[in-house]
Fold:
Amino acid sequence: MEKASLISVIVPCYNEEEVLPLFYAEITKISAQMTDKHPNLRFEYLFIDDGSKDHTLRDLRALAVKDERVRFISFSRNFGKEAGIYAGLQNAKGDYCVVMDADLQHPPSFLPVMYEAVLSGEYDCATTRRVSRKGESKVRSWFARLFYRIMNKISQTEIVDGAQDFRFMTRQMVDAVLSMSEYNRFSKGIFSWVGFRVKYLEYENVERAAGTTAWSFWGLFRYSIEGIIGFSTAPLSIAVVLGLISCLIAVFIVIFTIVKTLAFGESVDGFPTLMCSIFFLGGLQLFCTGILGIYLSKTYLEVKHRPIYLVRETEKNMPAPPEAAAEQASEQA
Ligand code: UDP
Ligand code: MG
Structure:
């Protein structure tokens, strides 16, 4: 007989009031199918409200009242999806944890297959890999591909193209992820860094069920820089390489000038060349100092040891729903 186990479904939500009911309907349907097949399986749904500005929190409160499997953590402001994932993993009680988006882009129908893969004992983690980027703009896909190419060239941590944060993990792997308590979190890198045996399930990109993505192009760009800085120190070597190259060029110029002066005598022209070199070298130096600066700023944020997220409300300290409050008031009167 299978031992009793709890699956924690962790869902970071930022302004997801439109998809939340759809997601809840879908996940409860799939859970019911899974518990039918494995009667010893239990579920908890841990929603992380990442400082939503719409009615996400109100809807989560209602769900928590209606369904005891629903738990939620509401942040004091928007801390970003990475913080949401961390908070979810930290507070999940499950023997298995699965992280998924609220917008149904991570189809809950994958859960049974993921569970079976991990249950077989052959894998510690099951995740999905997009094999197409259907529904995404060409420019965005191109930049995404470029990012993976660069990242995998310069970093020891391999990040599979199309890999996602949709992960079904054993408690052991969750604890490993939690042991990486860094402030600058890049989950794709962290999941890959911890290792373990990962099963990749391939699937076609699904579009958002409703609502809009919170990611702008600029946001994604910053996120990719975060990934590169967090998991590679190669950019720091750029200064060394460029410095060496410009030294070599200088040696050639010295030799060329000596030979030219000896052969043709000295002349004092060359002002444009001088200006070009000053601007070129000045630019290079600023560029390299900039790279140093980025690493320094990340280190600065890291050594401050600021909390990764702050909680304002959970299902344990939520205000009573309006009807219950009204009843209480009438009882007291
Ligand atoms: N999300 C979040 N905090 C944020 C931005 C997004 O918790 O600051 C959540 C969002 O609610 C969703 C998931 O992260 O469940 C993925 O976000 P989105 O669908 O906007 O990103 P995309 O699918 O385009 O990568
Ligand atoms: Mg999405």
In short: The mean pLDDT is 86. Residues 49 and 74 are 4 Å apart (CA to CA). Residues 234-303 form one domain.
